[in-house]
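[Meeting: bench + compute handoff]

Bench side (C.D.) handed over the final construct sequence. Compute side (W.E.) agreed to return the predicted structure before the next meeting so the bench team could plan truncations. Sequence as handed over:
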Amino acid sequence: MTRSHPHFRIPDASIRLDSMPAAGRELDLVVERPEREAIASDLGITAVDRLTVRLAAVRFRGGIRVTGRLAALVVQPSVISLEPVLQEIEEPIDRVFLPGSEKPFAGPANAEVFVDLEHEEIPDHFDGNEADLTDLIVETLALAIDPYPRAEGEALGEIGDDDTEDELPFAGLKVLRNPEDKG
């Protein structure tokens, strides 16, 4: 995801491995207005009126596993009438972060390789002792947003898609068809 704000971070949306308790750490985030406006701008929607995230992070295979829930209220224009449409979002989060960045080579022989057969996603990576969860939050929200929002009761027929059979683009071709051409 390319951001218009290259150093955008949600405050307190990071976890340090070196100071994480053995039982893990919980994060309860209420994203403030300036960050919500930046997210709405990046996602190309009208507004993010509310964004709360509850996460739990535990140590997992040298990295961390983050689980939780994202709740949001977004506003975007209807694809039919361009009137504002509100969408309530409740989305689960479950992601693994491993230290080090992805390497373009296979690595040394006999290296341990992490394969999670229960999930289709490959783990994310972080550098240093801190995993910034801003991208995880924005990505989860972006994937949950309805790509074709419509106000309740709106349908495509309302915009003049009520063509009769004689008005269809290829209706004139019927006269060229021979009766014996059934096929």
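W.E. noted at the follow-up: The longest helix spans residues 33-43. C.D. will use this when planning the next construct.
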